[in-house]
Design brief:
This protein is flat. A three-stranded antiparallel beta sheet has the order 1-2-3, covered by helices on one side. It has one domain. It is an alpha+beta fold and about 110 residues long. This is PPM-type phosphatase domain-containing protein.
Length: about 110
């Protein structure tokens, strides 16, 4: 029996001019899905920072590309902890003197 996902999304700009929400869904090949699962992640850039939209987009891009490249011996919690620590450092270093901020929810 295989897992079938049906995913939809909706996002609203609200009172701001720009929507800084980002969504990423990764359906990996069967071998990776069996060991690491599927990835669904939502990030909402913080509008009071230098570029919350950029923070949200690059965080999801990094998570989606790097998570499946972590060693098979790493537990999910260990992989996410290391990836998010690295991504936080990148966000701090690349904000042009201002922090790049985003929320992140992943499962």
């Amino acid at each position: 029996m295989s897992l079938q996902l049906s995913i939809g999304q909706a996002s609203a700009t609200g009172p701001r001019k720009e929507n800084q929400d980002a969504l990423r869904v990764v359906t990996p090949p069967a071998d990776l899905a069996a060991s690491k699962g599927h990835l669904l992640a939502l990030a909402d850039g913080v509008s009071q920072c230098a570029d919350g939209g950029l923070a949200a987009r690059v965080t999801l891009q990094a998570l989606a590309s790097d998570y499946y490249a972590t060693p098979e011996t790493w537990a999910v919690a260990q992989a996410l902890d290391r990836l998010l620590l690295s991504q936080n450092r990148w966000l701090q270093a690349n904000g042009g003197g201002q922090p790049l901020l985003t929320t992140l929810t992943a499962c």
